[in-house]
Amino acid sequence: MGRGSGDGKLNTNAQERVVIKNMPRKSGRHAEQSDKPKNNKPKPISKSLDYRDTLCEECRKGDEEDKMLLCDKCDKGYHTYCLCPVVAKVPAGKWFCTQCSEPDKVKVKEFPLVQTKIIDFFHIQKSNQADVSQNGFQKPKKRGSKLFVTKRKRRLLPYVPTENPDRRLEQMASLATALTTAGVQFSDELTYSSSMAPRSSNRPTLEKGGMQVMSKEDKIALELCKTMSSRGECAPLLVVYDSKEGFTVVADNNIKDLTIITEYTGDVDYLCKRENDDGDCMMTLLVTEDRSKSLVVCPDKRGNISRFINGINNHIP
């Protein structure tokens, strides 16, 4: 589970984690091999005489034993990075390779392509702002020339929604299909609960090493994205189902680098409560000196399109 400060996610303050185009791929799960059932840590293959000559079934190499997983049924080995999708987290129970595991019986029921149902699902609000331009982002005025050259800082850009309203409905319907299939309620905000982590626990002053502060221009871009999303002007993205990867996000139009896609949303919980969680889409929200106060965002019950983003295919055929 990576920090939100890596490529594709921006640390701003403890209330915001922004998903930006060109994200690293989101990893899946690890598996374990251990002789002690009470120990959740995987046992390195090199320490087991029975498996010291095991080779990865994919690359046929026996190196990096600490990253080799053994199927609990056939005892064949696989490197974590050779699997598709990549395995990156130790599960609470047993692990089976694709040959031994039962086929995934996911029933995908398409969300109705009905405007009223989509409006209700996403809680879309009608806009009364007539002064908002198509992209809502004004270019800075040119200033007089100077004798010296300053380095221009790259700023974040708001996404540009698809102009065709019918196509936007299809984009939102694809997200609604993914969310309902996963049993997730749509939410564009962080959710706090007394049974998890209260709102008071999310304080920027607790961040280890300090928070990265957004510039004024970046804040304007972020607020514009929020406004467009609330009006049903979503980012030009489609959520599609893949038999191996599950639900993934692909670009439905050209998206520039450093474009804000959405904020990462879900239930806020303490990291210490989720260390053995099998969820593969959690994201760090707050890292503190006291590990018991660190927070994560868990979109297993509530979330938005960020739950399915593991890299965006920006290729338009």
UniProtKB/TrEMBL annotation:
It comes from the Eukaryota. Residues 1-47 are annotated as: Disordered. InterPro entries: ATXR5/ATXR6 (IPR053114), SET_dom_sf (IPR046341), Zinc_finger_PHD-type_CS (IPR019786), Znf_FYVE_PHD (IPR011011), Znf_PHD (IPR001965), Znf_PHD-finger (IPR019787), Znf_RING/FYVE/PHD (IPR013083). GO terms for biological process: chromatin organization. One of its GO terms (molecular function) is zinc ion binding. The keyword Transport does not apply. Residues 29-38 have a biased composition (Basic and acidic residues). Pfam families: PHD (PF00628). PANTHER family: SET DOMAIN-CONTAINING PROTEIN. This is PHD-type domain-containing protein. It comes from Taxus chinensis.
